[in-house]
Amino acid sequence: xxxxxxxPGNCDTLGGTLITLSLLKIGFExxxxxxxxxxxxxxxxxxxRYLQASGQSFCFQxxxxxxxxxxxxxxxxxxxxxxxxxxxxxDNCVYNYLLPTFLINAPRLRCSGRRIYHFxxxxxxxxxxxxxxxxxxxxxxxxxxxxxxxxxxxxxxxRLMPNIQGILYQPVNLKRFNDSPPMTPPKELLxxxxxxxxxxxxxxxxxxxxxxxxxxxxxxxxxxxxxxxxGYHYHGVVIGEDKSQDQLNSxxxxxxxxxxxxxxxxxxxxxxxxxEDYYKYANVVVTLAPRxxxxxxxxxxxxxxxxxxxSRTGGIGEILGHFAPQWxxxxxxxxxxxxxxxxxxxGADTPKLIAKGKSWVESQCSVMGxxxxxxxxxxxxxxxxxxxxxxxxxxxxxxxxxxxxx
Length: 406
Description:
Order of helices and strands: EHEHEHEHEHEHEHEHEHEHEHEHEHHHH
Radius of gyration: 22 Å
Strand content: 5-15%
Oligomer: single chain
Number of strands: 13
Strand order of the largest sheet: 3-2-1-4-5-6-7
């Protein structure tokens, strides 16, 4: 009986990779296939601490190492010792610090006879010709079967990894993200709520401008200024990690807000493991990254019943296009964004669009559906398992039919 080995490229960022792997583990449990999954994690990393805090310790292979590059090297060595019929899923292994080790081990991986897959959570972009060449050499040699989190991502990584097997929108834990009535609001939001201001929420890493996947947070400031000039009372709240030295990126945003006279209605909060509590008190989510590969913020907000104003480009636009193209905007047009925020608050069609969006999220981003696709695409289920599952499905269908008759 084969087992899926998953090797993440980063164990220290609270983002799509971590959340998706956590939900994949839950999906395997719900499919009664926990013994068929092994996720490698770096001991004492953010991923390790997050999974321990959420009570998830099964299905994980911990490796002690001083940094992610060393972890990757030791993880590859561990994988090479496992049975060859265990498929390997490399999870977004495109970071610069992995390339030397990856390049050295690529020939052995290719010749191992092991089925190798690569999940792309981002565009695998490089700012240098050398970085592109290294990635091209690695993925040409390994020749993985590729899974992507959006068609936008697939279009960008195709020149590096042409063997694209499927598009899998990332899952959402609907037990956490839903429109159930909120309990006590997070303490950081209490002063804003008491002031009577409406909350614009933007969960996002706080990065410097100019990156290929620019989060474009600076565009939020003039949006708040235009809303203020129009006589509307909105408070922008950004929640995310700032890894810049001395919080330079955050300070730059706050200085910009001060210059435009909206410092009192703009707040930056540290990342949180309970982001769903913040969604439930938001009036609208605004996400203006022009080249976001997927846009987990969009599907999480919609699952919580919160409208989303987002970029018409990238993965954000791809998702919104399925159920609310009216909410797509030019990310660099603050006047249009401000007007869209006002419109979504008064639009008679907003509840209908949210309901349509929730239906889409439930059908396209369920944990069970995502896990089932991973199992199928990685060929983890053999012909015997498929036959047994088919018989089980037929039996369940028959039982449902009888229930309907009675």
